[in-house]
């Protein structure tokens, strides 16, 4: 994100170093702000309009203090699990936070007044359903795919959001606008109207008014500097260097990325992660091996179709190309024998193998279980890890071994959205993350991962069973 025009004639330009740290912010209204970092990409100093803010960190990379012009304004206290548990301000105010075993905030105490949050953890990301202040119900929230409305003091307010999920307005039951909001690219509130109490603002996330930061579940986000206050535990993707950064929000591109987990950015329009893009690096070798086995004029025709699969720009284009490929692959006894040989090569299971996938079900799972293989839920997840982190660790444990990861993408109605990363189902979001990790580390995984797809039909791509004798082609 290098430049933005916010409201009226206000223009903001950003300058970054080679690893994504913001070096300078030039605001046509508020002037210039400069930033200084240490060798660990930790923000150490911020200078703007004669004000200097100095940041200090502990050995774990957590922000522990902010000093403004020599006066310590804010002190952060962290527990042994790197969770923010207390914030002390120069005016004497103290805020404390409580968490559940999944590191999700369940309470906040401000000057002795406690707010407790009743959470729905069955959603892709934990969401607040109710808020209680000193034991009395203070707020209720209603969700569909996202936040629909809130109820406070018996009054309903309905959310109107933009494509990023940011709240742009609230209306009453009659449709009248009771609040409106304008943000800069990083989520700072530039302009607002109305007096309705509302904590859900930029990207639809909860704003902590005491801390003046967004709570993104695993970490707090300071929109003022476009960074998190705690080091990221997610290691990132080698093929996308900006994801290796431990502090920046949204890969320094908050217009196209959000970070609801506080661990890794999710693109709202993931053009780079369409099916075709992932297949370019993951399935090409296996698909072309089938082409070579078939050979002749039919093999040449399949190679041509395979090329159209790999350059397909959209999901519909990909499905059309893939259908042509599989139809060709089903013609002729010679082709059938070649495909059957491919099946026999991949449908082998050994002790220590893993079955992955959003369902990891059916015949594939049975074959693997019978051979002594494992599924992710056979293992105990360490409490300090999220499901996604644990899944990535287990994937990495197979690298450079003789074992295989059998990635089951059969019987999945939502496969195109999984590849794009746009599915709203929790297990599908995890699968998207796993696929991105494998893609970005393909050189390490190429000898260990086998992908299973169903034959493309007129209706969908989830109608086969991947066992010998069935219509199944492993790419």
CATH topology of the largest domain: RHS repeat-associated core
Give the CATH class of the largest domain. Mainly Beta
Total discrete domains: 2
Q: Which regions are unreliable across 5 or more consecutive residues at pLDDT < 50?
A: 268-303, 305-323, 325-347, 455-475
- CATH homologous superfamily grouping of the largest domain: RHS repeat-associated core
Got a strand count?
A: 30
| Share of helical residues | 10-25%
What is the typical, i.e. mean, pLDDT?
77
Give the N-terminus to C-terminus distance in angstroms: 37 Å
Structure commentary:
By secondary structure, this protein is α+β, with helices and mostly antiparallel strands. It has two domains: 3-267, RHS repeat-associated core, CATH 2.180.10; 271-473, no CATH class. Helices cover 23% and strands 32% of the residues. The protein contains ten helices and 30 strands. It has a 19-stranded antiparallel sheet, with no helix packed on it. It has a five-stranded mixed sheet with strand order 27-26-28-29-30, covered by helices on one side. Strands 20-21-22-23 form a four-stranded antiparallel sheet, with no helix packed on it. Strand 8 and strand 9 form a beta hairpin. Helix 3 (296-310) packs antiparallel against helix 4 (315-329). The chain is globular, with a radius of gyration of 25 Å.
Which keywords apply here?
2 domains; 30 strands; 10 helices; five-stranded mixed β-sheet; RHS repeat-associated core; disordered C terminus; 19-stranded antiparallel β-sheet
